[in-house]
Amino acid sequence: MATRDVAFAAYVVQRRPQLYRAAWLLCGDAHRAEDVVQSALTKLYVAWARVERADSVDAYVRRAIVNAHLDETRRPWRRETAAGQDLPESSVAAVPVEEHDALWTALRSLAPGMRKVVVLRHFWGLSVEETATDLGISAGTVKSQTSAALRALRTVLADNLTKETS
């Protein structure tokens, strides 16, 4: 196996679970998340030598996942079926299992742009500037969408909590 393939394989083994969880958070469907990750990794493999030399592997693959998700949502046959309710086998560890449905419902209620900002900022832990670069938007847009998204999430999650305790 060539040195290039060894380095690529090592990266994929190390990062694939996080890539899958991020894709799942963007699209909410386990099968679509697999498709998105596979598409992103295919693009990464083709550009591996250039991306690895630039030390921008994570930034490239994040952008590839966002773009692959956008490509998936633009396909007409994808609009015919609703996103599944199945949770991925490994989800965000910080959220207790019993709250996954409520969290996914809240995330799904966000506009796609807000959902992308929340995933990149709070799941990936990117800075405002990194998120803006990955999404091709201004830092101000990232800040305003983050603020609006978190406000909306608090409202939806508080409403769900109120309904459960009633």
From TrEMBL:
It comes from the Bacteria. Residues 101-153 form the RNA polymerase sigma factor 70 region 4 type domain. It holds the Pfam family Sigma70_r2. Residues 14-78 form the RNA polymerase sigma-70 region domain. SUPFAM superfamilies: Sigma2 domain of RNA polymerase sigma factors, Sigma3 and sigma4 domains of RNA polymerase sigma factors. InterPro entries: RNA_pol_sigma-70-like, RNA_pol_sigma-70_dom, RNA_pol_sigma-E_actinobac, RNA_pol_sigma70_r2, RNA_pol_sigma70_r4_t2, RNA_pol_sigma_r2, RNA_pol_sigma_r3/r4-like, WH-like_DNA-bd_sf. Keywords: DNA-binding, Sigma factor, Transcription, Transcription regulation. Belongs to the sigma-70 factor family. ECF subfamily. PANTHER family: ECF RNA POLYMERASE SIGMA FACTOR SIGM (PTHR43133:SF50), RNA POLYMERASE ECF-TYPE SIGMA FACTO (PTHR43133). This is SigE family RNA polymerase sigma factor.
